[in-house]
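Predict the holo structure. Ligand: zinc ion.
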Amino acid sequence: MDCIFCKIIKKESPSMIIYEDKDIIAFQNIRPLAPVHILVVPKEHIPSVDQLEEKHKDLVGKIFLTAKKVAADQGIAGAYKIVFNVGEGGGQIVFHLHLHLLGGWKSKEDIDMPGMP
Ligand code: AMP
Ligand code: ZN
């Protein structure tokens, strides 16, 4: 399967890894839309939120808890956005489920994310 995030997970493609455990990897977005822009990605290849099933409940919880932990480690607790783009109509480009963790602005007026609500 030709999936860039699966390649990053298998270390076949380079990335700046922020966090990793047996289920999850978090790495720097190659084209950041905020001073902090990290992608939190399950290692299982699930194309998008639309393909989530009951069996993924624990994994989904873990994705959010990892985002919270990474945000704290990055010093942006209490000042970040979490975004999931879902499907082509929702602006999704990479069809391997991922959470966008965005933050690090000096003030709310600095928030400027083209293509991102
Ligand atoms: P989307 O599918 O629209 O939610 O966003 C995919 C995100 O993945 C974009 O923000 C890209 O900048 C990012 N991205 C694509 N390829 C890489 C890569 N090789 N390493 C890190 N981030 C990537
Ligand atoms: Zn994948």
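The pocket of adenosine monophosphate (ligand 1) is lined by residues 4, 13, 15, 27, 29-31, 39, 85, 91-94 (CB under 6 Å). The first strand starts at residue 17 and ends at 20.
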